[in-house]
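---------- Forwarded message ----------

FYI, see the Very-long-chain (3R)-3-hydroxyacyl-CoA dehydratase record below. Original note from H. follows.
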Amino acid sequence: MAGVGSAVRRLYLSVYNWVVFVGWAQVLYYAVTALLDGGHEGVYAAVERPLQLAQTAAVMEILHGLVGLVRSPVTATLPQIGSRLFLTWGILWSFPETQSHILVTSLVISWSITEIIRYSFFGLKETLGFAPSWLLWLRLVLFLLQAGHHLIKFRGNLLPFQKLDLKSELHSFVVALLICRYSTFMILYPTGILSEVGLIYIALPYIKVSEKYFVKMPNKWNFSFDYFYTCAIAIGVYVPGGPHMFTYMLAQRKKALSKAKTA
């Protein structure tokens, strides 16, 4: 029974990771296409539905941690997913005035690139049934990138592949790609965080004027809620929260790279 349970777990996590990967790939594709075609003003309209679906699907990761399907600590997963859901639904969807700002573009691109890398790796991990070394994963990615490059360069002529020394090319690029794989967050995390904080700040005047999600007294619950001050407090939370998460990811990077050196 344990073997069956493990197989079901792997199947479920494999499907989950690849489905969400496809969702984020759509988000990035639509965002870049809209950006090139009409500028940043049209990015949100192009990505709204896939962004909402892909980001909301991340709620399952909290449940995965709670029930023990994955080892990721809920204490690290919850604030990150919570903040993203807050931006997705509590800011961008709730206050359309923010949707045309250029920070939406930096936010969406930062999120989507990060998640495409993450979900593709874990999807591969669950599909194969074991945790491949990061070096092996990068070699696979490199092979696909090199194959695509040469297919484009030679317009479908497969003969040039006979001239490729894949082993040599892998050896030349693998170190750079390994560093890139664990260093993208060093750029994407700050751009994502700054975009999140900026969009919340931009939304504050619209929140105050609209009084959306406000609960005023008197009422039968004898309770009041001010969404404006809640969002202002949320900005303050990013001050200690952002560096804490960044430090956590630096530790994960160090751990992963040390494992790769011994793989």
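H. also flagged this: Confidence is low (pLDDT under 50) at residues 147-164, 169-178.
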